[in-house]
Amino acid sequence: MRPTNLGKGLRCAAAAALLLAGTAGIGALTASTAHAAQTLRITLQLPLKNILGQNLLAFQEIVERESKGELKVEIYDSAQLYKDKEVPQAVASGAIEMGVAALTRFAGTVPAVDLFFVPFMFNDNAAIATATAPDHPIRAKIDAEIQTTGARVLWWQAFGLAVMLSKEQAMATPADMKDKKVRVFGKILGEFVRSAGGAPTLLSGSEQYLAYQRGTVDAGMTGVTAVKSRKLYEVMDYTIVTNHAGLEFVVLINEDVWQGLSGDQRAVISKAAQQVEGDLRQKYAKIHEDTLNWIDQDTKMQVIRLTPEQVDAWRKVAQPAWQVYIKNAGGLGAELVEEAKKLQ
To answer: Alpha helix locations (H) across the chain?
Structure first.
């Protein structure tokens, strides 16, 4: 029996309905995929309770709120995924989207980053805050060099200024360092100690307490907050406020990941980065002074603040270290030194 025109019409209508439903389903799937959240994983070697971890949590909160769920931030703290020295390569290769690394970790590929370890290059937190501002030539040139490795700097994390510690005698002048074994945390600082007649010993932060306690070294350099957190006040007598080196970290994002984000997403991240960077630098300037006051008032240590004349004497002794830095960092290093001199 031949189908009637009515039967044909019903079958056509049913087919059209199925086609429409299928198209709608594909459209819904496409829309769902388009709005799927982009996850950004961040590796951090310090615990979340550390001030750098708290800084990342603030970034996470802002980004997830302002992107309305389009961006998700996952923080892997305490070196769960990568150690500090592994972070630059992990981010540059795309093994992880984001990471936090000490600025000096780039010294092998970008020697100019060690500018902040050049002793007495900067006088105080204010000078470093100016040099690390996003629009300053020093920051801009360093960020551009790091970006050639495949990782983009989103923001810098202040980690305080270095001070000197000594036992029995306050190491307030270069002459006081002669024949002393001094703990350092970088090669440039080792050159500085040698130029003052001392013997540098490269030790990690965690090794300091026992080295001071046992007399393995006579004096040392460290971030001021470590005097409290590592209880160095128990084994040393003097904190000399030299502020001779800046401890800086950078938060990185893989360049391909960055380019794959929408303009709106990049704007959200950039705004959040700018906000948390400024907040942290402001906090660290206060933490620096609060910690010094605590050391002076609540421990047996004596805090020695240098006179301008004493700072000048140290800076003169540091000149050989400056020359080593320029030799290692080449033309870019020389340019950065000239910019830094304007801030002294």
So the answer is: 5-34, 51-66, 87-93, 125-131, 137-147, 187-195, 208-214, 224-229, 255-260, 263-298, 308-317, 319-341
Q: How confident is the model at residue 23 (pLDDT cuts 50, 70, 90)?
A: very low
| Element of type H or E holding 251 | strand 246-254
User: What is the total count of domains within the chain?
Assistant: 1
Q: Which amino acid is at 260?
A: G
Q: Can you give the CATH number for the domain in which 169 is found?
A: 3.40.190.170
Distance, in Å, from the CA atom of 79 to the CA atom of 252, rounded to the nearest integer, reads 15
Give the pairing type, strands 181-184 and 219-223: parallel
Side chain identity, residue 92? A
pLDDT over 50 at 30, yes or no: no
User: How far apart are alpha carbons 229 and 179 in whole angstroms?
Assistant: 29
Domain extent, residue 208, equals 36-341
- Check pLDDT > 50 for residue 25: no
Angle between helices 263-298 and 51-66 (to 10 degrees): 150
User: For the whole prediction, is pTM greater than 0.85?
Assistant: no
